[in-house]
Amino acid sequence: MDDKHDGRMTKEGIRLHERADFAGMHKAGRLAAIILDEITDHVYPGQTTAEIDRIITEKVMAAGAESATIGYRGYQHASCISVNHVVCHGIPGPKVLKSGDILNIDVTVIVDGWFGDTSRMYVAGELPRKAERLIQVTYDSLMLGIEAARPGNTFGDIGHAIQSYVESQRMSVVRDFCGHGLGRVFHAPPNVLHYGRAGQGPRLEEGMFFTIEPMVNLGRPETKVLGDDWTAVTRDKSLSAQFEHSIGVTADGCEIFTSSPAGRFHPTWA
Ligand code: MF3
Ligand code: CO
Ligand code: CO
After folding, report:
1. Residue 192: C-alpha distances to residues 49, 234, 244, 269 (Å)
2. Looking at residues 10-22, what average pLDDT do you find?
Protein backbone atom coordinates (compact mmCIF):
# COMPACT_ATOMS: atom_id res chain seq x y z
CA MET A 1 0.00 0.00 0.00
CA ASP A 2 1.23 3.48 -0.83
CA ASP A 3 1.23 5.39 2.44
CA LYS A 4 1.46 8.77 0.71
CA HIS A 5 -1.48 8.68 -1.64
CA ASP A 6 -4.13 6.47 -0.08
CA GLY A 7 -6.52 7.62 2.66
CA ARG A 8 -6.89 10.88 4.54
CA MET A 9 -3.87 13.08 5.30
CA THR A 10 -3.42 16.54 6.79
CA LYS A 11 -1.60 19.27 4.87
CA GLU A 12 1.47 18.43 6.99
CA GLY A 13 1.37 14.86 5.64
CA ILE A 14 0.06 13.34 8.86
CA ARG A 15 -2.15 10.33 8.20
CA LEU A 16 -5.64 10.31 9.74
CA HIS A 17 -6.46 6.67 10.44
CA GLU A 18 -9.89 5.09 10.49
CA ARG A 19 -11.55 3.84 13.67
CA ALA A 20 -11.00 0.22 12.52
CA ASP A 21 -7.24 0.83 12.39
CA PHE A 22 -7.06 1.30 16.17
CA ALA A 23 -7.58 -2.44 16.68
CA GLY A 24 -4.50 -3.28 14.62
CA MET A 25 -2.40 -0.83 16.62
CA HIS A 26 -3.70 -2.17 19.93
CA LYS A 27 -2.69 -5.69 18.90
CA ALA A 28 0.83 -4.69 17.82
CA GLY A 29 1.32 -2.38 20.81
CA ARG A 30 0.14 -5.03 23.21
CA LEU A 31 2.67 -7.57 21.93
CA ALA A 32 5.54 -5.08 22.29
CA ALA A 33 4.36 -4.29 25.83
CA ILE A 34 4.05 -7.97 26.78
CA ILE A 35 7.58 -8.63 25.57
CA LEU A 36 8.85 -5.73 27.72
CA ASP A 37 6.84 -7.10 30.67
CA GLU A 38 8.35 -10.56 30.25
CA ILE A 39 11.92 -9.30 29.90
CA THR A 40 11.82 -7.72 33.39
CA ASP A 41 12.97 -10.90 35.13
CA HIS A 42 15.91 -11.24 32.73
CA VAL A 43 17.49 -7.94 33.79
CA TYR A 44 19.97 -8.49 36.65
CA PRO A 45 23.62 -7.92 37.52
CA GLY A 46 25.80 -10.36 35.53
CA GLN A 47 23.40 -10.49 32.58
CA THR A 48 24.56 -9.28 29.14
CA THR A 49 22.56 -7.00 26.87
CA ALA A 50 23.14 -9.48 24.02
CA GLU A 51 21.34 -12.20 25.99
CA ILE A 52 18.42 -9.86 26.73
CA ASP A 53 18.17 -9.11 22.99
CA ARG A 54 18.35 -12.83 22.13
CA ILE A 55 15.39 -13.52 24.42
CA ILE A 56 13.46 -10.62 22.88
CA THR A 57 14.15 -11.94 19.38
CA GLU A 58 12.88 -15.37 20.45
CA LYS A 59 9.68 -13.87 21.88
CA VAL A 60 8.97 -11.85 18.72
CA MET A 61 9.37 -15.00 16.60
CA ALA A 62 7.35 -17.16 19.03
CA ALA A 63 4.45 -14.70 18.70
CA GLY A 64 4.55 -15.06 14.92
CA ALA A 65 5.39 -11.38 14.62
CA GLU A 66 8.24 -9.55 12.94
CA SER A 67 10.92 -7.28 14.40
CA ALA A 68 10.76 -3.81 12.88
CA THR A 69 14.36 -3.06 13.76
CA ILE A 70 16.15 -6.12 12.33
CA GLY A 71 17.23 -4.93 8.88
CA TYR A 72 16.11 -1.34 9.51
CA ARG A 73 18.83 0.88 7.98
CA GLY A 74 21.31 -1.94 8.57
CA TYR A 75 20.43 -2.41 12.26
CA GLN A 76 20.71 -6.09 13.21
CA HIS A 77 18.91 -6.50 16.55
CA ALA A 78 15.34 -6.83 17.84
CA SER A 79 15.91 -4.20 20.53
CA CYS A 80 17.91 -1.15 21.44
CA ILE A 81 19.39 -1.39 24.93
CA SER A 82 20.72 1.90 26.28
CA VAL A 83 22.64 1.68 29.56
CA ASN A 84 23.34 4.63 31.93
CA HIS A 85 24.71 7.55 29.88
CA VAL A 86 23.56 5.99 26.60
CA VAL A 87 20.61 8.13 25.47
CA CYS A 88 19.14 5.79 22.83
CA HIS A 89 19.95 3.26 20.08
CA GLY A 90 22.35 1.29 22.29
CA ILE A 91 23.40 -1.88 20.46
CA PRO A 92 23.00 -5.14 22.42
CA GLY A 93 26.35 -6.83 22.97
CA PRO A 94 28.70 -8.55 25.43
CA LYS A 95 28.39 -5.72 27.98
CA VAL A 96 27.71 -7.23 31.42
CA LEU A 97 25.22 -5.38 33.62
CA LYS A 98 26.31 -4.45 37.13
CA SER A 99 24.23 -3.51 40.17
CA GLY A 100 23.01 0.07 39.94
CA ASP A 101 22.95 0.18 36.13
CA ILE A 102 19.79 1.66 34.64
CA LEU A 103 18.77 0.76 31.10
CA ASN A 104 16.16 1.52 28.51
CA ILE A 105 14.94 -1.37 26.40
CA ASP A 106 13.15 -0.34 23.18
CA VAL A 107 11.21 -2.87 21.12
CA THR A 108 9.25 -2.37 17.89
CA VAL A 109 7.22 -5.24 16.43
CA ILE A 110 5.09 -5.60 13.33
CA VAL A 111 1.81 -7.50 13.73
CA ASP A 112 -0.47 -7.86 10.69
CA GLY A 113 1.39 -4.92 9.14
CA TRP A 114 0.90 -2.58 12.14
CA PHE A 115 3.86 -1.23 14.13
CA GLY A 116 4.00 -1.30 17.95
CA ASP A 117 6.86 0.79 19.38
CA THR A 118 7.54 1.14 23.10
CA SER A 119 10.40 1.45 25.52
CA ARG A 120 10.80 1.65 29.26
CA MET A 121 13.42 1.73 32.00
CA TYR A 122 14.86 -1.22 33.92
CA VAL A 123 17.29 -1.50 36.80
CA ALA A 124 19.95 -4.14 37.46
CA GLY A 125 20.10 -4.77 41.19
CA GLU A 126 19.85 -1.74 43.49
CA LEU A 127 18.38 1.49 42.11
CA PRO A 128 20.61 4.48 43.02
CA ARG A 129 18.75 7.48 44.45
CA LYS A 130 19.79 9.90 41.66
CA ALA A 131 18.72 7.41 39.01
CA GLU A 132 15.38 6.88 40.74
CA ARG A 133 14.62 10.60 40.53
CA LEU A 134 15.65 10.72 36.86
CA ILE A 135 13.45 7.75 36.01
CA GLN A 136 10.46 9.20 37.87
CA VAL A 137 10.76 12.61 36.19
CA THR A 138 11.13 10.99 32.75
CA TYR A 139 8.09 8.77 33.31
CA ASP A 140 6.03 11.73 34.60
CA SER A 141 7.08 13.84 31.60
CA LEU A 142 5.82 11.17 29.17
CA MET A 143 2.50 10.99 31.01
CA LEU A 144 2.15 14.80 30.96
CA GLY A 145 2.81 14.70 27.21
CA ILE A 146 0.13 12.04 26.78
CA GLU A 147 -2.36 14.15 28.80
CA ALA A 148 -1.78 16.98 26.33
CA ALA A 149 -2.51 14.67 23.37
CA ARG A 150 -6.07 15.51 22.38
CA PRO A 151 -7.85 17.17 19.43
CA GLY A 152 -7.57 20.94 19.52
CA ASN A 153 -4.17 20.91 21.17
CA THR A 154 -1.03 21.17 19.05
CA PHE A 155 2.19 19.15 18.95
CA GLY A 156 3.83 22.20 20.53
CA ASP A 157 1.53 21.75 23.53
CA ILE A 158 2.86 18.20 23.97
CA GLY A 159 6.49 19.33 23.74
CA HIS A 160 5.85 22.24 26.06
CA ALA A 161 4.20 20.02 28.70
CA ILE A 162 7.24 17.73 28.69
CA GLN A 163 9.95 20.40 28.57
CA SER A 164 8.49 22.74 31.16
CA TYR A 165 8.07 19.91 33.67
CA VAL A 166 11.53 18.40 33.09
CA GLU A 167 13.27 21.76 33.36
CA SER A 168 11.30 22.64 36.52
CA GLN A 169 12.98 19.54 38.00
CA ARG A 170 16.43 20.87 36.93
CA MET A 171 16.93 18.13 34.34
CA SER A 172 17.23 18.52 30.56
CA VAL A 173 15.29 17.27 27.51
CA VAL A 174 17.27 15.79 24.61
CA ARG A 175 16.67 17.75 21.36
CA ASP A 176 18.56 15.50 18.95
CA PHE A 177 15.93 12.72 18.84
CA CYS A 178 12.16 12.89 18.69
CA GLY A 179 8.98 10.83 18.58
CA HIS A 180 7.32 10.06 15.25
CA GLY A 181 4.14 9.17 13.46
CA LEU A 182 3.67 5.45 12.89
CA GLY A 183 1.00 2.98 11.80
CA ARG A 184 1.58 0.71 8.84
CA VAL A 185 5.01 2.36 8.70
CA PHE A 186 7.73 2.68 11.36
CA HIS A 187 8.55 6.37 11.04
CA ALA A 188 6.16 8.89 9.46
CA PRO A 189 5.34 12.58 9.91
CA PRO A 190 5.22 14.41 12.18
CA ASN A 191 8.43 14.71 14.20
CA VAL A 192 7.10 14.72 17.75
CA LEU A 193 9.41 17.10 19.59
CA HIS A 194 9.75 16.76 23.35
CA TYR A 195 10.23 20.51 23.75
CA GLY A 196 8.38 23.47 22.29
CA ARG A 197 5.94 26.28 22.74
CA ALA A 198 2.27 26.02 23.60
CA GLY A 199 0.04 26.51 20.57
CA GLN A 200 2.77 25.90 17.98
CA GLY A 201 3.08 23.09 15.46
CA PRO A 202 0.36 21.04 13.74
CA ARG A 203 -3.01 20.67 15.43
CA LEU A 204 -3.89 17.17 16.70
CA GLU A 205 -6.78 15.39 15.01
CA GLU A 206 -8.67 12.18 15.62
CA GLY A 207 -6.95 9.24 13.91
CA MET A 208 -3.36 10.46 14.26
CA PHE A 209 -1.03 7.69 15.48
CA PHE A 210 2.37 8.63 16.90
CA THR A 211 4.92 7.93 19.60
CA ILE A 212 5.96 10.14 22.49
CA GLU A 213 9.38 9.09 23.76
CA PRO A 214 11.14 11.76 25.82
CA MET A 215 14.81 11.30 26.65
CA VAL A 216 15.83 13.18 29.81
CA ASN A 217 19.36 13.81 31.09
CA LEU A 218 20.55 14.61 34.60
CA GLY A 219 23.11 16.96 33.04
CA ARG A 220 23.20 18.86 29.77
CA PRO A 221 20.99 17.94 26.77
CA GLU A 222 23.75 17.55 24.15
CA THR A 223 24.38 14.11 22.67
CA LYS A 224 26.88 12.53 20.30
CA VAL A 225 26.73 9.36 18.22
CA LEU A 226 29.58 6.89 18.68
CA GLY A 227 31.70 5.38 15.89
CA ASP A 228 29.27 2.46 15.49
CA ASP A 229 26.90 5.05 13.92
CA TRP A 230 24.04 4.11 16.30
CA THR A 231 24.89 4.52 20.00
CA ALA A 232 23.90 8.01 21.18
CA VAL A 233 25.43 9.15 24.48
CA THR A 234 25.29 12.28 26.60
CA ARG A 235 28.26 14.51 25.79
CA ASP A 236 28.82 15.26 29.49
CA LYS A 237 28.50 11.52 30.43
CA SER A 238 25.49 12.29 32.64
CA LEU A 239 22.81 9.66 33.23
CA SER A 240 19.93 9.52 30.73
CA ALA A 241 16.47 7.91 30.81
CA GLN A 242 13.61 7.37 28.33
CA PHE A 243 10.06 6.03 28.21
CA GLU A 244 8.05 5.53 25.01
CA HIS A 245 4.41 4.85 24.26
CA SER A 246 2.60 4.55 20.92
CA ILE A 247 -0.75 6.36 21.05
CA GLY A 248 -3.77 7.15 18.86
CA VAL A 249 -5.80 10.37 19.05
CA THR A 250 -9.53 9.87 19.69
CA ALA A 251 -12.44 12.36 19.58
CA ASP A 252 -11.72 13.58 23.10
CA GLY A 253 -8.22 12.41 24.07
CA CYS A 254 -6.05 9.48 23.14
CA GLU A 255 -5.66 5.74 23.56
CA ILE A 256 -2.32 4.21 24.59
CA PHE A 257 -1.53 1.20 22.38
CA THR A 258 1.46 0.01 24.44
CA SER A 259 0.11 -0.12 28.00
CA SER A 260 1.67 -2.85 30.14
CA PRO A 261 -0.81 -5.70 30.72
CA ALA A 262 1.21 -6.71 33.82
CA GLY A 263 1.44 -3.17 35.22
CA ARG A 264 5.21 -3.24 34.81
CA PHE A 265 5.75 -0.12 32.71
CA HIS A 266 7.53 1.66 35.56
CA PRO A 267 10.50 -0.20 37.10
CA THR A 268 9.51 0.43 40.71
CA TRP A 269 6.13 -1.22 40.03
CA ALA A 270 7.78 -4.44 38.80
N1 MF3 B 1 12.39 2.07 18.33
C2 MF3 B 1 13.16 3.25 18.01
C3 MF3 B 1 12.19 4.38 18.03
O4 MF3 B 1 11.62 4.62 19.05
C5 MF3 B 1 13.85 3.14 16.70
C6 MF3 B 1 14.95 2.17 16.73
S7 MF3 B 1 15.61 2.05 15.17
C8 MF3 B 1 16.89 0.98 15.39
O9 MF3 B 1 11.89 5.04 17.07
F10 MF3 B 1 17.26 0.66 14.20
F11 MF3 B 1 17.83 1.59 16.10
F12 MF3 B 1 16.48 -0.08 16.06
CO1 CO C 1 9.77 5.33 18.46
CO1 CO D 1 11.13 2.82 20.11
Report:
1. 28, 20, 12, 27
2. 98
